[in-house]
Amino acid sequence: MQPTDTKVSALTPYSSVAIERRRPIGLSLALAFGWVLFALWWRVVLTVESTDFFLRALAILGVGMAVVFTASRWWVAHNKRLARKGNRGLTSRYAVPSWAHDAIDRPVVMQSRSELAAAAVITISADGQTKRYDVESPRTPVPSSGSCAAT
């Protein structure tokens, strides 16, 4: 069994005990070796190749980065223009839902949004003329974990 270095992470939302993450020493050494190898190969490349080659490579990388950056900015601006116009290609335009009428054009009657949001139970009823959203009972506060109400 390999010794491990231990790092304690934050608590999860569902536990009261910190979770322990372990990373094997072998993995840490392999990562360090990889970075050392990466640095050594760059040293070889920079000493073997001419400065002219290195500058050309940097110029090609710079042009490539500029092209990618410009294309990305153009694509984002293009998508923003499409979204502003509401044209989403071959799909239909997004319609903001209207709460004044339902799908079969009956008027919808409801309390205020804050009353509906605070409700524990909402009853939805429909007759031939209207559709109603009624608040049955307001939401009661959840008791803390230390107390329990007997019913």
Uncertain parts: 1-6
Net shape: elongated
SSE string:
EEHHEHEE
Number of distinct beta strands = 5
Report the end-to-end length measured between terminal Cα atoms. Answer: 55 Å
Compile the SSE list and pairings.
Elements: E1 4-8, E2 20-24, H1 25-48, H2 51-85, E3 108-110, H3 113-118, E4 119-126, E5 131-138
Parallel strand pairs: 3-5
Antiparallel strand pairs: 1-2, 4-5
What is the structure about, briefly put?
The protein has 151 residues and is an alpha+beta fold. The protein has helices at 25-48, 51-85, 113-118, and strands at residues 4-8, 20-24, 108-110, 119-126, 131-138.
Report on the structure:
It is elongated, with a radius of gyration of 31 Å. It has three helices and five strands. Residues 1-6 have low confidence and may be disordered. The longest helix is centred in the middle third of the chain and has 35 residues, at 51-85. Strand 4 (119-126) and strand 5 (131-138) form a beta hairpin. The chain has 151 residues and is of the alpha+beta class. A three-stranded mixed β-sheet has the order 3-5-4. Helices cover 43% and strands 19% of the residues.
Characteristic key phrases:
single chain, 151 residues, alpha+beta, 3-stranded mixed β-sheet, two-stranded antiparallel ribbon, 43% helix, disordered N terminus
